[in-house]
Amino acid sequence: MVKLKLRDTAIALLALGSAQEAFAQSVAAPETVKYPRAFFDAFSPTTAFDIVRRVPGFTLDLGQDRRGFGSSGGNVLIDGKRPASKSGGLEEALARIPASTVERVELILSEASSEAQGQSVVVNLVLKPALKTSVWQVGASLDREGALSPSLEATVSRPLAGWLTSTRLVLGAGRDPNDGTRTVRDGSGGLIRSEVERRDSLQKWLNISSEARGALAGGELTVNSRLEGYTYEMNAGRDRFLARRPDGAPDQARFIDFNDKGVNGEFGLDWSRQMTPRWTLRALTLATWDDTETRTVSRLEAPVGAFSSGQRARSTSETIEWIGRSVASGQLGSGLKVEIGGELVFNRLDAGLDFADLTSQGQGVPINLPSANVRVEERRAEAFVSAGMGLGPRVSVEGLLSFETSRINVSGEASAAETLSDFKPAVSLSWRASDDFTVRLDLRREVGQLDFDGFAASAEIAADRTAAGNPQLRPDSVIRSSINLDYRKPEGPSTSFEAFHEWRSDILEQLVLPSGAVATVNAGDARVWGVRVSAASPLPGGFRLEGGGEWRDSQFRDPLTGGTRVVNTFTPLTYRVELRQDVPAWKLSWGLVANSEGTEREFFVGETSEFNWGVRHNLYIETTRWPGLKVRLTLSDFTQRRFQSERRFFEPNRAGRDSGREIRNWDRGPDISLRINGQF
To answer: The whole model's pTM is what?
Structure first.
């Protein structure tokens, strides 16, 4: 079915109209600010990732974990192209490039290509010809209990038989102990129980990725591969004190063991060629796979030492994805910059859940949840065309129109099939008001992707939550308008400001199915609005101040209560501020960082959850006193960051009475870590 509303049609016509008018106009070059490699020397970068994080007034967007290639990119290009890699993400692609191979950084304030995916500000890294260079990093962090977490990274770049090759190895282990308290009260505020919790986790990982670039068939071929394995173990113990504060021996004890392990990989081919002086062709194919298994066991002793009850859950997830994509870009006549392309995608998820109550002998009594074992397959095709033109020496307009159709099939313990089709138009207008100031207006329609996990049942034993699978889901969509103001002096202050408003449809939230089961459903429409700011400025005495943040608000009519509230998983405010001083005479730098991930709110059928991450304060000092080495010492959470979560419970659901709440408090840090970077 084609879901094209009147307002969406208006956007599509506007985008197409822009493309038609472009034939009579000259193409305006994107507004670009160029930073030479030497601009970043004060930060002693080791990789391209270090460089990108220091571009003034720029907020790095690593992209979204979405199916397909066109819809998952971030806001960084490498030699004008997005890295042809998904599972490792943009961060891994940048970390695989030694900083010495970067020739310059181009900050593009108006980019119409499909590579930019609607980003208002994009960074393009221009690399040098093939160089022989290698970098490494060893590190270790020491937590407040004296546990050591080591890590090792190494990247080797070598020209080989006319090909430039780069291989990166990452391995490490991390321990994360946490102590905290829980307080559970009834609806009138009476104390039901208090808990003292001890949680310890250990994660191990090994990752190897490689890339090779070389000439083939008159163009350039890039080959990417990646393999990763990891394990995560968490053990928690909670001493319970019934109707009293922790005092003396506990009345009960709860133990939770959580184990997660997985292996994933990727292989891709990316070929591009200058077909004519005006036209370039790019074609890529990419295959990824991911195999994970999660086991959770919970048991309650009441009194301590005597088994009372327990549960176990084992969930498995196997996913594969194949992508084929081709894009032709160039100019028609002297007046139109055009891109025409298409993408084919196949995805499959095999999900299974074994959920059971435990007896005192350790045997399981199965608990049946709808859609516990399902297979979800999606076949999707997308075609798009974009066009850009200049309306004068300082004004440019871009239009994009894409059409997407997909077929989703669900089989196993649930069955369903649906065909979805959507237009996704966009139009942008950019005005270079002066050499330092640019204004960009943007209007676009985007279509979300269904999380395949919503089709399958799930169990969160630690949180005492379960959900059935729902094979009748539809993707959400959003119409987004924004204005972006960018002011920057290449050697002075830089500021990027964006205000946006979104009209969201088919919001996905948890409700009750007609069968009585709790599951994710399409719950209604919402509005979201906010501002984003990113700024940097040099100060006297070698100081530099930079930071950024986002403030958001939203409005959604709750289908359970009938009232108005924010959308699910909502975080109203996040920010990061850094004050740094470079002392070249001493080859020394130091800095203070304040980082807040905000407070997140979630809404379930019978409860609400609010999680406050607190403010993280870090102090670091780094030196390049020893030739070829950079040493960085960091003291994290030196102000004793505090986490807090609050769960409020309702009977029979959020439209009913307040039946109680659970408040958890725990402190983090301080930690100390040492990182040494070098070359070989």
So the answer is: 0.84
d(CA 299, CA 313): 12
Q: Report cis status (omega within 30 of 0) of the bond before 56.
A: no
Phi, psi values for residue 393, rounded to 5°: -65, -20
Mean local confidence (pLDDT), 73-98: 76
* Listed residue (615, 641, 542) closest to 585, CA to CA: 542
Residue 430 CA to residue 27 CA, distance in Å, equals 13
Q: How far apart are CA 45 and CA 52, in angstroms?
A: 10
Which residue has better confidence, 483 or 513?
483
Count of alpha carbons within 13 Å of 188, Cβ hemisphere only? 1
Quote the longest CA-to-CA distance of the chain.
84
Could you tell me the sign of the dihedral formed by the alpha carbons of 359, 363, 366, 367, in that order?
positive
Residue 116 pLDDT: 55
Instruction: Report which DSSP code applies to 391.
Output: S
Taken in order 656, 603, 260, 416, the sign of the CA dihedral is positive
What's the sign of the alpha-carbon dihedral 23, 404, 423, 508? negative
Lowest mean pLDDT among 15-19, 284-288, 351-355, 376-380: 15-19
Alpha carbon of residue 542 to chain centroid: 33
Q: Region 230-239: what's the mean pLDDT? A: 96
Residue 3 has pLDDT above 70, yes or no: no
Burial of 627 (0-12, 13-18, 19+ CB in 10 A): exposed
Question: Which 3 state secondary structure label does DSSP give 622?
Answer: strand
645 or 95, which is more confident:
645
Burial label, 549 (beta-carbon count in 10 A; 0-12, 13-18, 19+): middle
Q: What is the dihedral of CA 567, 568, 573, 575, to 10 degrees?
A: -130
Q: Which long-range contacts (CB under 8 A, 24 or more apart) does 58-66 make?
A: 58/107, 58/121, 58/123, 58/494, 58/496, 58/534, 59/496, 59/532, 59/534, 59/548, 61/119, 62/89, 62/90, 62/91, 63/89, 63/90, 65/89, 66/449
Is cis: bond before 514, omega within 30 of 0? Answer: no
- Give me the percent of the chain exceeding a pLDDT of 90: 54
| Predicted pLDDT of residue 127 | 86
Peptide bond into 83 cis (omega under 30): no
Cβ–Cβ under 8 Å, residues 232 and 261: yes
Q: Is the pLDDT of residue 590 over 70?
A: yes
Residue type at 384? F
Instruction: Tell me what the mean pLDDT of segment 334-354 comes to.
Output: 90
